[in-house]
Amino acid sequence: MKTQQEWEAQLASEGFRNVKVVVDPPGKVYPEHTHDCIFDHIVMSGSISLTMNGTTHNLKPGDRGPVPKGVVHSAQVGPEGCTYVMGEK
Q1: In Å, how far are 27, 28, 40, 57, 74 from 17, measured between CA atoms?
Q2: How many domains does the chain have?
Q3: Cut 0.90: pTM above it
């Protein structure tokens, strides 16, 4: 699997800005919301469930969770927490 720096560089090379690492505690919930840009997550450790358009995607290390601009979505962090690289464009 890629390193944190490699994931950050990949997102930056794809035109994402504000690329950073987020560390969420176990069970954290993000209620339904939207973004005014494309938003992407790449899981490095742990897990997070991302729900969009009635479908839940269970993301684990190495998985990406892109969210299109304006799409209503929610998320719940798994029992072991989640560390991911995120960016927006």
Answers
A1: 27, 24, 10, 24, 22
A2: 1
A3: yes
